[in-house]
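Reminder: ligand-aware prediction takes two inputs, not one.
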Amino acid sequence: MFVNLINKLISTSAKKPPQSIARTVSTTTTMSPATLQPIFDKLFPKVEELKPDFINVLKQAVEIPAVSGDESLRPMVVKKAKFLASQLESLGFHDIQLKELGTQPPPVNNTHLQLPPVVLSRYGSDPAKKTVLVYGHYDVQPAQREDGWDTEPFELVVDEATQTLRGRGSTDDTGPLTGWLHVVRAHKEAGIDFPVNLITCFEGMEESGSLGLEELIAKEASNYFKGVDAVCISDNYWLGTKKPVLTYGLRGCNYYQVTVSGPKADLHSGVFGGIIAEPMVDLVQVLSGLVDSKGKILIDGIDEMVAPVTEKEKEIYEKIDFSLEELNEASGSNTALYTSKEDILMHRWRYPSLSVHGVEGAFYGQGAKTVIPAKVSGKFSIRTVPDMDSEKLTKLVVDHCNKSFAKLGSPNTCHAELIHDGAYWVSDPFNAQFSAAAEATKVVYGVEPDLTREGGSIPITLTFEQELKTSVLLLPMGRGDDGAHSINEKLDISNFINGIKLMGAYLHFYAQSPEN
Ligand SMILES: C[C@H](N)C(=O)N[C@@H](Cc1c[nH]cn1)C(=O)O
Ligand SMILES: [Zn+2]
Ligand SMILES: [Zn+2]
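Here is what comes back for the chain with zinc ion:
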């Protein structure tokens, strides 16, 4: 009955993909694990044998602080691109190109700042084989030891006690990205013919909105990317900590800043406090008018853009393997806004959310600096979902900020703007790629994967689908408690090693699959 429900959801949603599907994948396919078993019997032990080398490559990559959101670290992002190019070269990839994307558009402090290059390369060019493009990002989120890390964030620590690899980028996304290189190495050293032609597209701006990549993909669709049959992205996480998943949906992300400016320079609060209008005081009031403590977005017009939940969709969430306890464990707290699994998953996957991230220009360090900041920018983002329109949303956000500020009657000035936007994406999880990945999961993990959506965003996903006219599969490597974007980010060694096997097995199953 549940299978019928899923099929109905897909067939009735016409061009629109299903909102959410929670059952395991049905693999009615001609692919036979038995014919591939002799290959896996050679491949998997080789992956195990190369584990120390794979960890060592990840260690070298993590040591480069490629923080795309920090302008001063841009040379490090470029250094990491070059490091990857040299790794690709030593593995026998060809046609390696570091594609330049021009200068970073405003808002930016250095108006001549070059965007980091996109690393394109090929492994194999056999016309008899399918071509799979693998996308990953080599940039990372900012991290400082003082944030609360147990060890230096840009040193990969092999934690024997927990059997994890700790360091910024271990799970998001340096570990999974390097996984694709390791798959090639394991094939070479095991003497196994690589099942597909591989193209890499590794970018260095994902954590900052994938600036410039859309244009590159549109340009290369009929050039470098010509003949791509499928796109695979390993850049998200299992829902929990035990069960592997395949992911068929992402929320989008519109990132904003609202800047309040007043005095020419920061001022002494003893000299000017009480006699001038303080930008920070205005800003906190504008920010507090965006969302309430229950997570309700206070901007008029947003709820109306969200696709309504159908009765059928509600049933889907019941089947998912997830609990409030797992959420509490992953957040390290009991601060959840919802208690039921359905509410938690719907608010993570299919409703928008607004998060306030920080304030640029404000005092934030230790001690007690008595300053009145002259200009402060509040940063916040809205995770978007079907059927929200990015331009309409931005208009609502900017109008809302301007109205909130006007109510204050302040002599300061206020400017709200979009920094970047990335689209949401929902796909059909029963195509050839997902079936191949489900078979691979059964071989590697011995279970059928759950089908999940992701609350986070990978801005370029929809662009690949539209420009290359291919399906996209999200094949996560890490677990839901990996701490991506947080302190002590980690990747379990077992996820790293099994994830590499999974990537390899998926490529073999997909190569055998009768359809594209
Ligand atoms: C899911 C992916 N690994 C990720 O972390 N994506 C970022 C991308 C982003 C940054 N700004 C806007 N999108 C995320 O979801 O925050
Ligand atoms: Zn990330
Ligand atoms: Zn990522």
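The longest helix spans residues 493-512. The pocket of zinc ion (ligand 3) is lined by residues 137, 172-173, 206, 235 (CB under 6 Å). We will return to this case in the review session.
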